[in-house]
Amino acid sequence: MLTRQWHKSSYSGHEGACVEARLDATSVEVRDTKDKSGPTLSVGFAEWHRLIADLRTDRM
Protein backbone atom coordinates (compact mmCIF):
# COMPACT_ATOMS: atom_id res chain seq x y z
CA MET A 1 0.00 0.00 0.00
CA LEU A 2 1.34 3.41 -0.93
CA THR A 3 1.67 6.24 1.55
CA ARG A 4 3.21 9.70 1.38
CA GLN A 5 6.62 8.06 2.01
CA TRP A 6 8.63 6.76 -0.95
CA HIS A 7 8.36 2.96 -1.42
CA LYS A 8 10.72 0.89 -3.54
CA SER A 9 9.23 -1.70 -5.86
CA SER A 10 9.13 -5.20 -4.37
CA TYR A 11 10.45 -6.45 -7.74
CA SER A 12 13.57 -4.28 -7.59
CA GLY A 13 16.89 -6.03 -7.50
CA HIS A 14 19.98 -5.16 -5.50
CA GLU A 15 21.82 -3.55 -8.42
CA GLY A 16 20.01 -0.22 -7.97
CA ALA A 17 17.83 -0.32 -11.09
CA CYS A 18 14.70 0.53 -9.12
CA VAL A 19 11.68 2.75 -9.10
CA GLU A 20 9.93 4.21 -6.09
CA ALA A 21 6.38 5.49 -5.75
CA ARG A 22 4.40 7.53 -3.22
CA LEU A 23 1.02 9.15 -2.82
CA ASP A 24 0.59 12.85 -3.38
CA ALA A 25 -2.57 14.82 -2.58
CA THR A 26 -4.10 14.16 -6.02
CA SER A 27 -1.80 11.67 -7.73
CA VAL A 28 0.91 9.03 -7.47
CA GLU A 29 4.52 10.11 -8.01
CA VAL A 30 7.18 7.78 -9.41
CA ARG A 31 10.96 8.34 -9.44
CA ASP A 32 14.23 6.58 -10.22
CA THR A 33 16.00 5.52 -7.02
CA LYS A 34 19.39 6.30 -8.58
CA ASP A 35 18.38 9.96 -9.04
CA LYS A 36 16.31 10.82 -5.95
CA SER A 37 16.67 14.56 -6.48
CA GLY A 38 15.79 14.25 -10.17
CA PRO A 39 12.41 14.53 -11.88
CA THR A 40 9.33 12.55 -10.92
CA LEU A 41 6.46 11.27 -13.01
CA SER A 42 3.04 12.14 -11.62
CA VAL A 43 -0.06 10.18 -12.67
CA GLY A 44 -3.67 10.36 -11.54
CA PHE A 45 -5.14 7.67 -9.30
CA ALA A 46 -7.29 6.16 -12.06
CA GLU A 47 -4.30 5.88 -14.41
CA TRP A 48 -2.17 4.36 -11.62
CA HIS A 49 -4.79 1.71 -10.86
CA ARG A 50 -5.10 0.86 -14.58
CA LEU A 51 -1.31 0.51 -14.85
CA ILE A 52 -1.13 -1.80 -11.84
CA ALA A 53 -4.07 -3.88 -13.13
CA ASP A 54 -2.41 -4.19 -16.55
CA LEU A 55 0.91 -5.20 -15.01
CA ARG A 56 -0.78 -7.83 -12.83
CA THR A 57 -2.55 -9.36 -15.83
CA ASP A 58 0.55 -9.03 -18.04
CA ARG A 59 -1.24 -6.86 -20.61
CA MET A 60 1.75 -4.60 -21.19
Description:
It contains one helix and four strands, in the order ββββα. Strands 1-2-3-4 form a four-stranded antiparallel sheet. Helix content is 20%, strand content 28%. It is globular and about 30 Å long. With 60 residues, the protein is an alpha+beta fold. It has one domain. Strand 2 and strand 3 form a beta hairpin. It has one helix spanning 45-56; strands at 7-8, 19-23, 27-32, 41-44.
Ranges where pLDDT stays below 50 over 5 or more residues in a row are none
The geometry reads as: globular
Question: Based on the structure, what is the oligomeric state of the protein chains?
Answer: single chain
How confident overall, as mean pLDDT? 86
Topology as a string of helices (H) and strands (E) = EEEEH
**How many structural domains?**
1
Characterize the largest beta sheet: strand count, sense, and whether it forms a barrel.
4 strands, antiparallel
Q: What structural class results from the helix and strand content?
A: alpha+beta
**How are the strands of the biggest sheet laid out side by side?**
1-2-3-4
Radius of gyration: 12 Å
Instruction: Count every beta strand, where a strand is a DSSP E run of 2 or more residues.
Output: 4
Note the total helix count. Answer: 1
Helix content: 10-25%
Distance between the termini: 22 Å
